[in-house]
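Final report, closing paragraph on structural work. Over the funding period we assembled a curated collection of sequence-structure pairs, and we close with a single example.
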Amino acid sequence: MGKVQPKKNLGQHFLQDKNIAAKIAASLTGEGYKSVLEIGPGMGILTRFLIERNFPDFRVIELDNESVHYLKVNFPDLREIIRGDFLAMDIDSYFTDNLAVIGNFPYNISSQILFKVLKYREKIVEVTGMLQKEVAERICSSPGSKTYGILSVLLQAFYTAEYLFTVPEHVFSPPPKVKSGVIRLKRNQIKRLECDESLFFTVVKACFNQRRKTLRNSVKSAFSLRKEDYSEFGLRPEQLSVDQFVQLTRWIEENRYYPNV
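Its predicted structure, as stored:
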């Protein structure tokens, strides 16, 4: 069969270097899960090495019809090729136990993929992903860094984030204009944050949406408070650790103005 070239959708750049693909596949630890889901396998360069890992339950999800056809022909032993969009996927209907997610994530939906991971954080216990290098570094950055932001805080609240290695532009087709970075996220031991988790997400997003302002200004613009004397209101959001955001969330929860019913 002649080589079928899948459509380039969603801003995806397809990896061509087998050594890098093998390195990405090898980065999955296999600890705490038996199921693995690859997102957007395309022509299957990473899929081949993941099959060799012999995970008890390995599946892929692919949106492009031509790629699905290619995978069916060239990887007949795949347990399941899910035809669909990971962002719209009901993971609970496919996986009953813990799983890992892996893939060369399309640049322009990589953040959405990670927010989806957060939604299923009780089930997705590990993630290995290749993203734009800038985004990968942001996710793994520490408080005080200029790159520390919303994804840094939200992901590090529930996962240990590790930057693994950088991937150059020329190993992709078509070559992107920027370098890529491979990260690994491993679920930490925190089952529940010591605050309202929904409010925590809201607080973090509200603070970083006005990251040049102090916490006092960003919090006051987002919440109606009974008090305005929080001890760290003079700091900027990138200066706060995850634990400090948890404490801020608890304080906001205690001091928000709730109208009488």
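Residues 1-10 have pLDDT under 50 and may be disordered. Strands lie at 14-15, 35-39, 57-62, 80-83, 99-104, 124-132, 159-167, 172-173, 180-187. We thank the funder for supporting this effort.
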